[in-house]
From TrEMBL:
Name used for this protein in its record: DUF3180 domain-containing protein
Upper lineage: Bacteria, Bacillati, Actinomycetota, Actinomycetes, Micrococcales
Composition-biased stretches (Basic and acidic residues): 157-168
Transmembrane segments: 7-26, 32-55, 75-96, 116-137
UniProt-listed InterPro entries: DUF3180
Keywords: Membrane, Transmembrane, Transmembrane helix
Residue segments, region Disordered: 145-168
Length: 168
């Protein structure tokens, strides 16, 4: 399993910003409402982020603490997958709402009610929180390389020239 690459997260955000911008153009031409998620979706985003963080803290506590108790490796693998999904979902939500916001900035002076702008900003902030938590929890799940005796070599070769860490 590969670690999250910040460039991919940025690329997802930029692509979804373009898609959100185009979707806003199409919906405004058809006299439809803006394709913005309702504020209640922030509760779901927060719940996903909190679950991801709690599971990540459990893995980190095992990684940094006493390893006397057995730890389910499947839980650690699922936590890494959840962290990566959380980060990518946050990038999608941030990009989508950023594209809509960019499209709607010229209409600020014509609107009497600016609450939709605050909804978009709230979703963008929620997306950033999800990306941040996803990246941090993924780091929690990394196990540092084991110390080998000076005369022995590691049983696994390094991949692609990246570090020797692996996931818990």
């Amino acid at each position: 399993m590969r670690t999250i690459r910040p460039a991919w997260l940025a690329a997802v955000g930029v692509v979804l910003a373009a898609v959100g911008w185009v979707a806003t153009l199409l919906t405004s031409r058809a006299s439809l409402a803006l394709p913005v998620l309702p504020l209640s979706s922030l509760i779901t985003m927060a719940l996903i982020a909190v679950v991801c963080l709690v599971l990540g803290l459990r893995v980190r506590r095992w990684r940094d603490g006493n390893r006397d108790k057995a730890f389910d490796p499947l839980l650690a693998a699922r936590t890494v997958v959840l962290a990566q999904a959380c980060a990518y979902a946050g990038a999608v939500l941030f990009g989508w709402h950023a594209g809509i916001l960019i499209n709607q900035i010229p209409t600020v002076s014509m609107r009497s009610d600016l609450s939709i702008f605050w909804v978009m900003v709230a979703h963008m902030a929620g997306g950033l929180v999800m990306v941040t938590i996803g990246v941090i929890v993924e780091r929690f799940c990394k196990v540092p390389p084991e110390d080998n005796d000076p005369g022995t070599s590691s049983s696994r070769p390094k991949r692609d020239g990246h570090g020797e860490e692996e996931f818990a």
